[in-house]
Design a protein that fits this description.
213 residues, PspA_VIPP1, Phage shock protein A (PspA) family protein, mainly alpha, 92% helix, 6 helices, 2 domains, coiled coil, single chain
C-alpha cells in the first residue's frame, strides 16, 4: 500500500469520523491494521528474497569450486597426454565459470531488489509511526468536536422557546395547584370549629360524672 493510498484513506474518512458514522478510533485503527499487514507482508517477502540471494551466492560458490576442480583435472590430463579428457575438463571449467557469472548476476540483482524493498519498508514503518501519532490527534480532535457539538446543542436547547414555554407551563400548573389548595382550605371554614365540640362530647361520654354535675 503506497503512502498516497494511505493518505487517501484518511482524507476520505475524515468527514465520516466527524459525523460519527463509526467511532473514530476504531476507524483509524482499521486503517493502521491494513498498513501493519502490508509491512508484515513486505518483511516476509524480504526474508524470502534474502534466502534466494544466499542461494544464488552458494550456487556461485559451488560453481566456482567445480570450475577450479575441472581446471585441475584438465591440467593433470594434459600432463598425462590425455588431450581429449583435458579438453572435456576445460569445456566443463568454462561452463562452470559462466554459471558463476550467472549466479553472481542473480545474486547482485536480488540484493539490489532486496535493498530497495528494505528501504521502502523502512519508509513505510516511519510513515506508520507518524500515522499513529496523527491517529491520536484526530481521535482527540473528533472527541473534542463532538463534545463541543453536544454542549452547543444543549446551550441552544436551554435558550430555546420550547424549553422556556415548558417551564412556563409547569409553573402555571403549580400555580393552579396552589390556588386549588387555598380554595380547598377556605371552602369549609366551620370544619375546624366542629373539631373541639366533638372532642368535648367524646370527653363527656368518657366521664359521665362530669357531665351530670
Amino acid at each position: 500500500m503506497s503512502w498516497q493510498r494511505i493518505w487517501d484513506y484518511l482524507v476520505a474518512t475524515y468527514h465520516e469520523i466527524i459525523n460519527d458514522a463509526e467511532k473514530p478510533e476504531a476507524m483509524l485503527k482499521r486503517h493502521l491494521r491494513n498498513i501493519e499487514k502490508e509491512i508484515s507482508s513486505a518483511k516476509a517477502m524480504l526474508a524470502k528474497q534474502q534466502l534466494l540471494t544466499e542461494q544464488y551466492r552458494r550456487q556461485a560458490s559451488d560453481a566456482g569450486k567445480l570450475a577450479e576442480k575441472r581446471a585441475e583435472q584438465a591440467r593433470i590430463a594434459k600432463e598425462a597426454g590425455e588431450e581429449e579428457l583435458a579438453n572435456r575438463a576445460l569445456a566443463e571449467e568454462e561452463y562452470y565459470r559462466e554459471k558463476v557469472k550467472e549466479y553472481e548476476g542473480y545474486a547482485h540483482k536480488s540484493t539490489t531488489q532486496t535493498d530497495a524493498l528494505r528501504h521502502r519498508v523502512s519508509q513505510l514503518e516511519k510513515k506508520y509511526l507518524d500515522l499513529k501519532d496523527k491517529k491520536n490527534e484526530l481521535v482527540a480532535r473528533a472527541e473534542m468536536a463532538k463534545a463541543n457539538q453536544r454542549v452547543q446543542a444543549m446551550l441552544h436547547f436551554t435558550t430555546s422557546d420550547t424549553l422556556l414555554k415548558e417551564f412556563q407551563r409547569i409553573e402555571e400548573r403549580i400555580a393552579e395547584m396552589e390556588i386549588k389548595t387555598r380554595e380547598l382550605a377556605g371552602e369549609n371554614p366551620t370544619e375546624a370549629k366542629l373539631i373541639p365540640a366533638s372532642s368535648s362530647a367524646a370527653q363527656i361520654a368518657l366521664n359521665p360524672a362530669e357531665g351530670s354535675s
